[in-house]
Amino acid sequence: MREYVMVVLTGIGVVSPLGENAGTVHTRLVEGESGVGPLRRFVPADGRVHTGAEVGELAPLTGVGPGEKYLDRYGRMGLTAIVRAVADAGLAPGGDGEPLGIVLGAWLPAAATIQHFVDAYDAEGLQAASPMEFANCAFNAVASQAGIRLKLGPVNVTTIAGAVSGLAALEFAWWQLATGAAARLLVVGVQEMNATTYACCAGDALLAPSGSRPFDRARDGMALGEGACALVLERGDAARARCGRVLAEVGRPWLGYVPECRPADTEVAAAAVAAVLRDAVDQGGVVPAAVDHVSAAANGVPWLDAVEGAALLRVFADRPIVGTVKGALGEWVGVGPLLQVALAACALGSGVVPPVAGLREVDPCFERLALATRPVRRETRTAVVSSVCWSGMAGAAVVGVPGALR
Amino acid sequence: LSLVAYVGFQRLRSLAPSRCQPFDRNRQGVALGEGAAFLFLERAGAARARGRRGYGAVLAHGYGFDAYNMAVPHPDGAGGEQAVRAALRAARLGPADVDYINAHGTGTPSNDKAETTLVKRVFGARAYGIPISSTKSMVGHTMGAASALEAVACLIALERGVIPPTINYEVPDPECDLDYVPNRARCGAVRVALSAAFAMGGDASALLLARADGGGG
Predict the structure, then answer these.
(1) Cβ of B201 and A144 within 8 Å?
(2) CA–CA separation, B29 and B143 (whole Å)
(3) Running DSSP on this structure, what letter comes out for residue A90?
(4) Are B4 and A157 within 8 A, CB to CB?
(5) pLDDT tens digits for A138-158?
(6) What values do phi and psi take at A104, rounded to 5?
(7) Whole-number CA gyration radius for chain B
(8) Number of CB atoms found within 10 A of residue A205's CB
(9) Residue of chain B whose alpha carbon sits nearest to that of A151
(10) How much is the ipTM here?
(11) What average pLDDT does chain A have?
């Protein structure tokens, strides 16, 4: 028997290196395109890695109050995704209908803006530091900018939880909806590639000199990516009441800290990660044998892919199709799980799982996984979005066609 | 404490030049602070099973958002009002049930006036009988840590029956005319405490805490 009310996904907004429409991004992934390429917006200080998955020039932002005024690039990406998600869901926030709240998950929000603000002060003194730029230095700035411009609320929350910020935001929003505290919420993540975010990953030696090749024998790290993803989640009854289109059902997200998730011992780490994934699948409302597709967190970091692959084998054996979007779109760090949810929903709807970009020769340690080495055309009813991070956090969210989750 | 916050609040003209004077007519802004607080939460039954009464009980929380301005709160404290009403509704409590309010009380002219207005809107005539204090007058504004530190202040008030004061209070403001517990702590039974926390950008939250034993101290 269902313990909580049904939570459904009714709108998606994406800003990505492969476009600003989730359906388009999915199609381009199926066609084998990759957004990973030479960096254009900044030159990394260490000079070792020059590739990433950058978003190009952003389209002009309209329909959000004062337009792009007082928005930094991070905010513009977030607002663009939010506006698209709201439109995709067929909602008009701020009217007489049920309120639409917002939950933002972010890894290093406003890093570039903070740096610019400090640089301006250092170079030219107090008067050069813009008060409006300071407002955008706050970690909650994107959620507030969106809330003010689109009249969102009363829930307006920003979660900062490192590399699982997006999953934590999803979990928070799910609880708000499932327990009746809110009827519909935007769950949003934004990731900007800039000198600060790049340096954080370069410092941990996570970045790939040769581009992103998840599950590949020759993988040597991840490509950093950037973009924004906004999901409209609603209580099932709220969506039905307004005849809203349901893209997928979303089970209870689950995450935990796995201290064993370290490079030292793959099997020990995999066993511990598998335990969390089993809990996550159970909490999400399915049994492992019913899972058709796994959107893996795999990003090409050698030890991390190995741990996740071994954990997936322990939980699911070789049944589900395993893919990852990070070969083509890069690692969005905390925002990755939200992007994975969006694209897993697209795969459910289209009956096609995209291939793993950058994968040329499957590492023998993954041979028992049913990897999507080419587009896999098969009806899928349930998908697990896996999140396994170098910080030791792990978790998952389950999405399914309506009625597929218990 | 960080350079970003100092420069930013100075540019917003929200930094007090010397001291923080919440709700005082001559208040000029925030005093920045720093610190940390962690709260360990467990089910009441689990705490009892290991022989611990706990500092207090978490009754409910509420969120609000005023959708007004990135740097200035809504003049009526609309977001805070949403949050406090949501918390009271979730806890199934009424205005008469709250014995103490730990205010957001930053010491900026706009915040303290808006917060006073929202307390009056939610609590009506009862607003004049509830002790309200701003512990930011003593520890400064610790930004993201403030609501956790202020929850601790509420829990100690609940446990010990001592309400912390608002220090540096000298000149009453006709627009802030509630009981702000000026300058000296006050003994008194506190069964339920409300902690209010707002943020630049319009976010608001409210937390209702009660004595662990449900008594009046």
Answers:
(1) yes
(2) 14
(3) T
(4) no
(5) 999 999 999 999 999 999 999
(6) -105, 135
(7) 17
(8) 9
(9) B67
(10) 0.93
(11) 94
